[in-house]
Amino acid sequence: MKLNSVQSPSFKAFVPITYYAKNPVDDKYVRVMKPENIKKCQSFVVRNLNGTAKSNKNDAFVSNYASYDSDYRRVRAVRSVYDYDSAKSYIITGSDVDTVTNLAKPIGMAKSESIERTGRSSSFETRLATNDYFKKIRDFLRYNCRQVKNQNGEKLSMNVYFDPKYKRDGSLKGFDYVDMRMVKEGEV
Does 183 score more than 60 pLDDT? Predict the structure, then answer.
């Protein structure tokens, strides 16, 4: 199902992503809003683009994405970035992945230190490191990165479409990839 075709813009660091799942009642796509479901979808995207997907691997998704992102074609590395409330998600590609990884290191160090002292990963210091990380990420995206744009200068975002899969008891098991398209920011 080919939903859209866009010329190959050059990503200059990040792209916002919106996830959609098919509504089983009317077969229309609706936006995924729960943070835990957004993280499941984001995990599919990042694992496939980083080449670490063991199951649910999708080479068509990777080649489709690579056709849009010249930074990704040069350095096959992707990192997830979320807003503090996890409602908005982004991926960062290319050489900026290392910068984001370094911004996240203080969280891991604070968690390790907390585990050594208390046996638990949560602590005041961990929360401070996490809050500092989100502030630095927001500043990094705002001041050091540019959102991808098309040839007309319009900001683009990526819409990814999934089919939800359910367990026998009716609870959500996960999502199967359907398609991906690049659209002007705010379009469905």
Answer: yes
